[in-house]
Amino acid sequence: MDKQIKKKFWSRQRILLTIGGVLFASFAAYSLLFADRRSTLNAEKDKMTISQVTNGTFDEFIVVTGVVLPLRIIRLDAIVGGYVKEKVVDGGNIVKQGQVILKLENQNLKLNFLQSETEASRLVNDLQNTRQRLKVEKFTIRKNMSDLDFLTDQAKDLYERNKKLYNDKVIPEADYLKAKRDYEKLVSQKEIDLESQRYQEENAAMQIKQLEGTLERTQRNVQLWRETLENLVVKAPVSGLLSSIDVEVGSNISQGQNIGQIDDLDGFKLRVDIDEHYNGRIFAGLSGTFEFGGKEYPLEITKIYPEIRNGRFQVDMVFSKTVPEGIKRGQSSPIRLELGKATKAVLLPVGGFFSDTGGNWVYVLDKSGGKAVKRKITLGRKNPEYFEVLEGLEVGDKVITSSYENFGDNEVLDLK
């Protein structure tokens, strides 16, 4: 008779199943309590730019582009209009002060000048004739006064004699009274003639003065017309480079029209375009540097143009010390424009990450370098090379500074 073998409860199979269940339960508990549930993305490390946070000097500056211009540009505007009779000098040539550039023709101006000159000649003749006439009249008055004085003296003598004879009862009263009336009449006539003479002299002086004033004004007018005619010959106001002349022979130009410009070659400046974002921080006297021929030359802002076009405004900068030799009009070059004094700061190199995060967060590598974790940060000032770090990063941290465009919203990057 066979002996029945009692089956063990903890069989090998049951033990294995129990161990497996315990392991599964432990893994599930670990996953619920301790596992990293952050979204993760695999990324290729060699395709990234990784920069280290450093402690250094923050220079607040921007890089702008300046175009070399002459220190002084003289516009050539037509003082008078006319058609171009002769073009003496073409653009691109050096001219000297007073050198003839253009010759214009204007028949109306010449006619007006001749009419004005004729009027002045007529007034000169009128003035001469008036002076001659008044001189003759003056001689006539003097002759009449001389005759009147003679008659008055005769009448006075007769009156005084008759008065004495009448008092001596030698002549009748009628003879005495007649002599008296004749004398008094001549005395009264002399007073009237003297008053008339003064009036005529004053009137003559006034006529002469009026004619002289009219003649003077007409002669000034003639001089103005003469100067206007001289302006038909366009001359260089200063010595320099005739950089442009925008007219041709036979073309008509109007008064005030710009016909070209002359560049004064005694010095140069740079015309600089600056983003309107910096409008409130730009002022006259702000310094910068310009590199030419392997050397740096200091610059200074001297003029700010307030008009903003396409989000930019312009300033003029001049060389603070020496002007580079060989510099030419129209050259363009980057300028380092200082916006403030250098200060110590925690620095993060500039990169494409900023356009994706706005500087609010970055991916920071862990100590192993195998993972990069998203971290919130606060950035301050910026120059073309560095951001100033205010919060969130420490010196020595390694940060992905290239673009985050392909990383989505993942919180962790698994670097390969």
Automatic annotation (TrEMBL):
<keyword id="KW-0812">Transmembrane</keyword>
<keyword id="KW-1133">Transmembrane helix</keyword>
<comment type="similarity">
    <text>Belongs to the membrane fusion protein (MFP) (TC 8.A.1) family.</text>
</comment>
<protein>
    <submittedName>
        <fullName>Efflux RND transporter periplasmic adaptor subunit</fullName>
    </submittedName>
</protein>
<dbReference type="Pfam" id="PF25967">
    <property type="entry name" value="RND-MFP_C"/>
</dbReference>
<feature type="transmembrane region" description="Helical">
    <location>
        <begin position="15"/>
        <end position="35"/>
    </location>
</feature>
<feature type="domain" description="Multidrug resistance protein MdtA-like C-terminal permuted SH3">
    <location>
        <begin position="345"/>
        <end position="403"/>
    </location>
</feature>
<dbReference type="GO" id="GO:0016020">
    <property type="term" value="C:membrane"/>
</dbReference>
<feature type="coiled-coil region">
    <location>
        <begin position="201"/>
        <end position="235"/>
    </location>
</feature>
<feature type="coiled-coil region">
    <location>
        <begin position="117"/>
        <end position="168"/>
    </location>
</feature>
<dbReference type="InterPro" id="IPR050465">
    <property type="entry name" value="UPF0194_transport"/>
</dbReference>
<dbReference type="GO" id="GO:0030313">
    <property type="term" value="C:cell envelope"/>
</dbReference>
<dbReference type="GO" id="GO:0022857">
    <property type="term" value="F:transmembrane transporter activity"/>
</dbReference>
<dbReference type="InterPro" id="IPR006143">
    <property type="entry name" value="RND_pump_MFP"/>
</dbReference>
<keyword id="KW-0175">Coiled coil</keyword>
<dbReference type="InterPro" id="IPR058627">
    <property type="entry name" value="MdtA-like_C"/>
</dbReference>
<keyword id="KW-0472">Membrane</keyword>
